[in-house]
Amino acid sequence: MKNNLLSFFFFLCCVMATQFLSQRVWAQATPGSMTLDQLKTIKAIKIANLDKDTYFKSGGFILDRYEERPAYVFNYSDGIPRKIYLYKVFAAEDTKELGLLAIYQNGKTNEVKPFVIPGASADRKAWDAYIDDLKYVGEKEPGLMSALGFVLSREMAMLMAGGGAKSEEGGSKKKEEYNFCFAADAPVTLADGSTKPISDVMMEDQVMSYDANSNSIIATGVTKVNKHKGAFAIAGVWLMPVQEITAGNNSRLASPTLLEATANHPVLTAAGRKPFGEIKAGDVLYRYEPATRTVVAYKAVRTEPAVRTVDTVYSLSTQSGSYLIGETVVLDK
User: Fold this and answer.
1) Are residues 199 and 292 in the same domain?
2) Quick one: 200 and 306 in the same domain?
3) Cα distances (angstroms) measured from residue 302 to each of 11, 220, 268, 270, 283
């Protein structure tokens, strides 16, 4: 009787915490409406490495580690460590936020149990499926309900205290702007003038960067290499030197230079920072000229929203906030 009451308490705690958390989180996001079929698809997603795979696309969905936090770890008296991983779930097509994915892992057996927590506007059938999982799955695994109840309650408390998910005005990144990356073969210009694929770049490598204040090329250190797996559309922009375009001698024009990136990666233009997918013919970007070691204006002469699709993308974080891809100035995300 006592165990039944305790199980019911944890069940009720999870339901109440989930309801509050969903209302607070999705009030600050662009909400979508999760269906029962979507819940089933999300629940079936397999994550290869829970500790390393903090962001990826699968089955038409984007999974992003909640507030970039590591797993919650619980060490009970039975000696079995338990973990809870939280991911926010977005529809890949329109990046609307659908809900949360909570993954429980038994540290002894490594068995995982996913719980898809619908957003506040989700279909009632999706909510019924989540509650059924709490009742019929959660109660069968000792320690699961208390761990999940604690995590959801703690996130609820942080939201009430003003922490946790932040509004766009509070400084968090806009979730419709996830794809800030390049294909694995994108050439990064190193500080010594050589290049190597972005997939081979390592932390603390020295790469070329552009200093807008001095209008000069400088060396900068790589502080982080970001890697994401999924299905990513790569946009293309063809560039020509402004001087050659204005010269009017078409017979001598060199072939346009192709720059590729995901649509939301920021680049430096004459008008300032701009998402790559918003570049239009006539916009001016900047490229490094090795012969003169200067930065030269290039004009976009053609754009394509999707020149190819890749399954792995990369981006860099640098000390200066910019680097060169194909000798074109791009910005940290």
Assistant:
1) yes
2) yes
3) 57, 31, 17, 17, 10
> How far is it, in rounded angstroms, from Cα 269 to Cα 266?
9
Tokens of 217: 């090329």
Which domain does 195 fall in, by range? 182-331
| pLDDT tens column, 145-179 | 888 888 887 776 665 555 444 433 333 444 444 56
Q: Are residues 104 and 233 in the same domain?
A: no
Examine the domain organization and report whether 105 and 194 are in the same domain: no
Is residue 91 located within the same domain as residue 136? yes
The DSSP secondary structure of 130-185, one letter per residue, reads HHHHHHHTGGGSTTHHHHHHHHHHHHHHHHHTT-SS--TTTTPPPTT-----EETT
Full DSSP string of 253-302:
PPPPEEEEE-TT-EEEETTEEEEGGG--TT-EEEEEETTTTEEEEEEEEE
pTM for this predicted structure? 0.51
pLDDT at 147: 86
Residues 194, 151: one domain? no
Separation CA 119–CA 26 (nearest Å) = 7
CB atoms within 10 A of CB 296: 14
Residue 44 lies in a domain: yes
Q: Quick one: 115 and 214 in the same domain?
A: no
CATH number at residue 316: 2.170.16.10
For residue range 45-98, list pLDDT tens digits in order: 999 899 888 888 888 899 988 877 788 898 878 889 999 999 999 988 777 889
How many domains are contained in the chain? 2
CA-based nearest residue to 195, from 104, 82, 328: 328
Contacts of 119 (CB under 8 A, 6+ apart): 22, 25, 26, 31, 32, 33, 34, 97, 98, 99
Q: Are 326 and 187 in contact (CB under 8 A)?
A: yes
